Amino acid sequence: MPVGHQVYERYDGEDEQAELQGFEELARELMLVQERNRGASGAATVDRAFHAKTVLAVEDACLRVRRDLPQDLQRGCFRPGAELPVTVRFSNANGAAQPDSAPDLRGVALRVHAGGDAVHDLLMTNWPVSPAANAREFVAMASAVAGRTSRVSKLLSLALRLPRRVGPFATVRIIGNLLCSTRRSESLARERYYSRGAILWGEAGPVRYRLHPVVSPAVPPSTGPDALRTDFARRLAAGDVEFDLQVQRYVSERRTPVENTARRWLFVRYESVARLVLPRQDVGTARARLVEHRVDRLAFNPWNTTDEFRPLGNLNRARRAAYEAGSAHRLHQRFVTEEPRRTVLLNGLVGRVFARVNRRWPWHRLPSRLALLNLAVLRRQLRRENLIDTDLPARVEVRTPGAEPPADAVAHRTADGCWNDLSSPGMGATGARFGRNMPVDSRQSDLPDPVEVADQLLARKSFIPAPSLNVLAAAWIQFQVHDWVQHRRHPVGERSIDLPLPGERRWRNTTDGRPERVMRIAEDDGDRNQVSHWWDGSEVYGSDPDKAAQLREDGGRGARLRLEDGHLPTGPGEVVLAGFSDSWWLGLSALQTLFAREHNAVCDALQEEYPHLDDERTYQTARLVVSALIAKIHTVEWTPAILGTKTLDTAMSVNWRGAPDQWLTRLGLRLLDPHAVHGIPRTRPDHSGVPFSLTEEFVTVYRMHPLIPDRYAFVDSATGEVRELGFDDISGRKTQDVFREIGLANSLRSLGTAHPGAITLHNFPDALRHFERDGEIVDLAVVDVVRTRRRGVPRYNDFRAGLHMPRISRFEELTTDPETLAALQRLYPSVDDVDTVVGLLAETPPAGFGFSDTAFRVFLLMASRRLQSDRFLTVDFRPEVYTPLGMDWVARGSMADVVRRHCPELAGVVGTGKAAFAPWR
Known about the structure:
This protein is α+β, with helices and mostly antiparallel strands. About 40% of the residues lie in helices and about 10% in strands. The strands form six sheets. It has an eight-stranded antiparallel beta barrel. It has a two-stranded antiparallel ribbon with strand order 10-15. Strands 11-14 form a two-stranded antiparallel ribbon. It comes from Geodermatophilus siccatus. Its cofactor is Ca(2+).
């Protein structure tokens, strides 16, 4: 391992990780620079933020290392006499292509192929220092000149905009450096090129490097807009062009600063390391043009290197995120949408007004149109302040050049969710970490006793129904949660949280165990999601390639999903074969079966309409269609059913379809939330500056176990016979036999006409307090309390404050019920100790809501984010990907359509729109 880089570096923040958090925002700003430059130039596509115009590119250059290379510089591939293949790109530095005769900075990028996958990208410009001392100054400078086409307008913009971001002295230095460095060049073959900052050179320590011209055939002067290319082409046609690669060694932080890239390393001699040779050739041939196109698509990045040659300094550290973002944006793999200035200003103004109004009248008590605008402002605040990247590395790491996305991953979803974001293949995939909406609560207290909390506050005394919903709505949200989230647990008995039981109570922790005085709950095995975070139907299709293949016909190669007489098959141990089969019961089985049949119906329609489609394309297209249809049903039907207000009806329709045809509402949304005008599926992916993931807080607010009844009545529509069963009778391994006896249509009808439980205290189903799962017996009421604490989700009052809601000061603000109030006061020392799951259930919801306003805040943020971040629900939600038939299937489809298609006898029974999740006739 080379000498530690920490010896030479000083971080902008408490440590390197704190510094990294700012780099992502700088990278986003540089993508906006690309957009502005594209707009100014009138180009149809996004180009590089800088060095947009390629002057010359070759792949057959060679770096010949000196035979007498000093011992301490002999590192990695730099061995005496080595000849290393090099790819070279010369360019003009401007962010928009302009004539070679224009004053500009010139640059060169080298990709040194070091053997195997290892490369070293060396980037240089023909001025000894950077105009900016660090990344913050550099981005401020780039942003100030973005979209400016003339030198005068750029200088004026710098003079006006830079002082407030970097100060007057830095502004003068930056403008002075730019004036000196942006000049005309007669020949790129005769320029010197200098590194931006230092790199580590093994144990020799930091160095800066440059290319010094040594051999260049003489040619007559060239003119015209491509004069520099013409000049270089003539020189290469006449002979080799050669440069010496030279280094300056670090002396001290005073004489040779690592962090300040605006200062020269004066009075430090250069030592030659190797000679770069561009061989004689004709760069005007078709082959040469093809090479140039190939090189132009490369993403050069100084972090494409090895640890021995690690880039150093703040500007270099920022370049990894910046270059990756810029390259991905240029290749249409990452997107950015600039928020109009009017939106920023109006949100600030309107946000302050609503903040005052909400002290007296919460958003849900305002008139519908005002409430809608209030929610738009609140959602923007949550996006800016309540998304935390938990997967941020502790330090900037070197890398190998990014792999090209596989062709099949570009065209359709992958089994494990990778490559949804083509610039970050692991984002949101199976195994990605859960995010956070607020800082972690580090308390690990098991007080008050979660068993007593469950007994006194959660246990169902008598069934409290939710009269506006049906049990299908309860099954639906579990069906969705199985698509979104699943923590890995340690095997039963391997690692557990042990809770001593009060009094003489005993608990059988496993089906074959003996009663104990301790309740054992299997601990989480890490904080990574075992299903993909994307809204991709993984509960139907599985979250890994093996499971996906297992569920398909013809040994995993067929287009259709495997069904036996229209039902899901079972595998070893009588476990149902489905994308997700944990916590299995009849309601889940009905929905899993229904949408497996829907997949097969889409396959049949696609192959009839497009006979040329093979089975793989048919399967993948059907998966896209069914997943999008599920997302649409949840957005515009289930959500307005459980949040039954006019405001939420409109809000969820806006998310999917765009603003209603009311000029005042459209105007307000256009000013405050431009995404909402046309609907999220008609926009581009936007992660709001934080890589997409579902969060631990999201998991918490979807703990909706009180929805599950303990008793069910199944009616035979042919005979009128009623069959009453308990939850235990229709769950676990008993499920499939009972489901086949009752049938899909009768199951749906019976679930569709019955009420679920209300999401409130004292309504946790008895059946789930003694629930068998994978050989473990659990009390899910206790588990809900313990898991939320152990995962670092803040307690209820801190949870509210983290979502910009007022804290409560008295238990009486949670409940007026004397018995509940007494239990809260007996269990909790203060209101600040109330468990989040308890507070969410105790809170009185807004009128028409099925759950609390506090839980709704997380929903408001994450529900639109699941759509907005997903490539297949935004930029790739189009006929070329889904087929015209697939787009029409989603556009026309609804829950009622799916039910009627597969159970036509229910055509006159199932409700339409949000009524599909209200009690049927």
